[in-house]
Write a structure and sequence with these properties.
Blueprint lengths: L13 H7 L5 H11 L5 H11 L7 H11 L9 E3 L3 H4 L3 H8 L16 H10 L1 H12 L11 E2 L8 E2 L4 E2 L1 H5 L11 E7 L8 E4 H16 L8 E5 L4 H12 L3 E4 L6 H11 L3 E5 L1 E4 L2 E4 L1 H6 L4 E5 L15 E2 H5 L15 E2 L3 E6 L9 E5 L2 H11 L8 E3 L8 H10 L4 E6 L5 H9 L4 E4 L1 H10 L12 E4 L6 H9 L6 E3 L1 E3 L4 E5 L6 E2 L5 E2 L5 E3 L13 E7 L15 H5 L5 E2 L2 E2 L1 E9 L5 E6 L3 E4 L2 E4 H8 L6 E9 L8 E8 L9 H12 L8 E6 L13 H18 L1
Parallel strand pairs: 5-18, 7-8, 7-9, 8-15, 9-12, 12-13, 17-18, 17-19, 19-20, 20-21, 35-36
Antiparallel strand pairs: 1-24, 2-3, 4-14, 5-6, 10-11, 15-16, 22-23, 23-25, 26-27, 27-30, 28-29, 30-31, 32-33, 34-35
Helix pairs in contact: 1-2, 7-8, 10-11, 15-16, 18-19
Enzyme class: ligase
Cofactor: Mg(2+)
EC number: 6.2.1.12
Length: 722
């Protein structure tokens, strides 16, 4: 860990603390710091500081000073920011299994003792039959027809066939009370933006079941062929969840469309999925402003639309001839008779949902989820985020992205409540909702955390109910997530990286392992990871290295087909073999550190070659983000010079205050170069460009190739004028 700019804890003085925390009792802070130093080792000292000194009211500058001071001289770039408490570990889902079953998990068939998380991970790969049976039993998963086995060889499926012969319905499992959990308990808790002082809204599991059955009966009244694709394009609120589950319950297929999409993107997804109908809203409410949504659906030439009035009005003006208001749609069935529904049980590989890749390079990949995929999503939540019966799970997202359906399944299949806020997650209103709903697991994308940190909108709130955070979607910042942990008494951040085609994660963290900031402590259960060397061959699994990441194809819940592309070509052609199996391509670049953590380095195509050295854009950006207080974020781009030659490093800079200016860009470039010398003295910034914002996909990933193209074209145009 870099330490040259940070004082070791023992060297921090009262004056240092006073400067970092004006108005605080620096003498008392220093005395507490000295007491913590009586602990043995930096990990123990940091743990004591988190427990006794670093409450949310202490200025973050102190948190940061003590964190970096504590781990000054630490031999690894991934010091543990959180270490599990053995007393808490035995209460986790995995801890209970290890405590109750341990060596006897599968009797005499497996001789190695299973006493730790790594033991269980190894077991999940070597004995999928026993591992997944155990998980399904603990989660209370029900099959209408039991599978003949958990997994078997089958050349028709990449990585073999899961749950052969099984029939089930994922929505039925969501709507069935789990052992020890009453159907009268809350399934969904929510609040609308602007009503932050109002009581929370609750829906019990039984009321959710009745509403889902009502909508399922109303969908059948549309007389669409069973198995038809039905789109949802609306914010992720209670109605959206009810509609989603109703479509699956009734044997149709959800088409997930993000409510942020413009008409052309909506149209493309409707055509790719061959959707026969679409559920939407007339408007989206944000800050009490009405943002048109139905008009975008109409512009996309969507099929029959069922339109929900956002303000609760019964009348919606200007509907197309074949479109229905929500009231008229529900009016097709008898409410009393429609509170029950005979679910359509289907084979395990029947489609339930069509989701899409971001589609930044052209037509998005249409990725089907089956009835197996929800089990993968929920199992990740059970194992890695430790979602338990009675928990409250929040993750601001949308059904148009995989984390939307993931939230539905990871909460309901585990007997937890889903917490939904109908408004912007960047606001103090959402932060207060987290407090009032007593959220136990809060999932986020890093950009939200960055906004909270910059606006301090969580000040004065009590987040002590949170047991862990989780993070996905983009690379996180050590400082931002150190700040985040401090808001909840230093609860861990479980990093989570996967993909729509995986149905969940392939690398993540665990509540039974120490967690480092911006790092992953383990491959997901049932997943083997491989880092490919420069020749494209897998490194030994436990070796230190950096390169493109590949997956063992025997991965529960992962895709087996694409609707508009050759699945084999996209994920397997040209990949190396391991133990007779062709590895699965993912495209991310990862590093395995000397202490066993994994660190993400962005997409493989975001890797630059500077001075003959491969480096991730994200690694450079983390450094450049800190060189000036006015910088909000940066993007590092390798731009080929006019006429060819080695890539030149250009830094695109977004300022916190768009109305302000950095007068001397040469000074900023010099500051970047000085900071980058600590990473590698050969890295040199060629130019710094101020931009109003970074181009992003709808799922918030930075599109560096767009900037690369713009900067290359600008350089070419400038050269042509000379």
């Amino acid at each position: 860990m870099a330490t040259t700019l940070h004082k070791p804890l023992g060297a921090i003085t009262v004056d240092d603390l006073a400067a970092a925390a004006p108005g605080s009792d620096a003498t008392a802070l220093h005395a507490a710091l000295r007491r913590a130093l009586d602990s043995h080792g930096p990990t123990e000292v940091w743990g004591e500081l988190c427990r006794s000194v670093l409450c949310p009211s202490v200025p973050f500058a102190v948190h940061r000073m003590l964190y970096y001071g504590c781990f000054a001289g630490f031999p690894s770039p991934t010091p543990p920011a959180w270490t599990p408490d053995p007393k808490e570990s035995v209460l986790t889902n995995v801890g209970r299994v290890l405590e109750a079953r341990g060596r006897n998990l599968i009797g005499d068939a497996y001789k190695d003792p299973i006493t730790s998380f790594p033991d269980l991970h190894k077991f999940s790969n070597e004995n999928p039959e026993a591992y997944w049976k155990m998980v399904f039993e603990d989660m209370g998963i029900q099959f209408s027809v039991e599978p003949s086995c958990i997994w078997r060889e089958n050349t028709a499926y990449p990585g073999g066939e899961w749950l052969p012969g099984a029939e089930l319905n994922a929505a039925v499992n969501c709507l069935t009370a789990k052992p020890g959990r009453s159907s009268d308990g809350p399934a969904i808790v929510w609040r609308d933006e602007g009503k932050d002082s109002d009581p929370l809204n609750f829906m019990s599991l039984e009321d959710l079941r009745k509403k889902v059955c009502l909508v399922a009966n109303a969908i059948d009244a549309l007389e669409l062929p069973k198995g038809s694709a039905i789109a949802i394009d609306m914010p992720m609120d209670v109605n959206a969840v009810v509609i989603y589950l109703a479509i699956v319950l009734a044997g149709y297929v959800v088409v997930s469309i993000a409510d942020s999409f413009a008409a052309p993107a909506i149209s493309m997804r409707l055509k790719l999925s061959e959707a026969k109908a679409i559920f939407t809203q007339d408007y989206i409410l944000r800050d009490d402003k009405e943002l048109p949504l139905y008009s975008r659906v109409v512009e996309a030439k969507a099929p029959m639309a069922i339109v929900i009035p956002v303000r609760g009005s019964l009348l919606i003006k200007g509907l197309r001839v074949d479109d229905l208001s929500w009231q008229d749609f529900l009016g097709r069935v008898n409410y009393t008779e429609a509170e029950n529904y005979t679910a359509v049980n289907q084979p395990a590989y029947a489609f339930t949902n069509i989701l899409f890749s971001s589609g930044t390079t052209g037509e998005p990949k249409a990725i089907p989820w089956t009835h197996i995929t929800p089990l993968k999503a929920a199992a990740d939540g059970w194992c890695h985020m430790d979602i338990r019966k009675g928990d409250v799970v929040a993750w601001p997202t949308n059904l148009g992205w995989m984390m939307g359906p993931w939230l539905v399944y990871a909460s309901l299949l585990n007997g937890a409540s889903m917490a939904l806020y109908n408004g912007s997650p960047n606001s103090s209103g959402f932060a207060k909702f987290v407090q009032d709903a007593k959220v136990t697991m809060l999932g986020l994308v890093p950009s939200i955390v960055r906004t909270w940190k910059n606006t301090d909108c969580t000040a004065g709130l009590d987040w002590s109910s949170i047991r862990c955070f989780s993070s996905s979607g983009e690379a996180s910042s050590v400082d931002d997530y150190l700040w985040l942990m401090g808001r909840a008494g230093y609860k861990p951040v479980i990093e989570y990286c996967g993909g729509t085609e995986i149905g969940g994660g392939f690398v993540t963290g665990s509540m039974l392992q120490p967690q480092a900031l911006s790092a992953f402590s383990t491959p997901a259960m049932g997943c083997n990871l491989f880092i490919l060397d420069s020749s494209g061959n897998p490194l030994p699994q436990d070796s230190v290295g950096i390169g493109e990441l590949a997956l063992d194809p025997t991965l529960f819940g992962s895709s087996t087909t694409l609707l508009n592309a050759d699945h084999q070509e996209v994920y397997f052609n040209g990949m190396p073999e391991w133990h007779g199996k062709i590895l699965r391509r993912h495209g991310d670049e990862f590093e395995r550190t000397s202490d066993g953590y994994y660190r993400a380095h962005g997409r493989a195509d975001d890797t630059m070659n500077l001075g003959g050295i491969k480096v991730s854009s994200i690694e450079i950006e983390r450094i450049c983000n800190r060189v000036h207080d006015a910088i909000l974020e940066t993007a590092a781009i390798g731009v080929p010079p006019v006429g060819g030659g080695p890539e030149q490093l250009t830094i695109a800079v977004v300022l916190k205050d768009q109305s302000s200016q950095i007068e001397d860009l040469n000074q900023l470039k010099l500051a970047c170069n000085m900071a980058l010398k600590k990473l590698n003295p050969l890295f040199k910034v060629s130019s710094v460009v101020i931009v109003p914002s970074l181009p992003r996909t709808a799922s918030n990933k930075v599109m560096r190739r767009v900037l690369r193209k713009e900067f290359s074209q600008a350089a070419q145009a400038k050269h042509s004028k000379i």
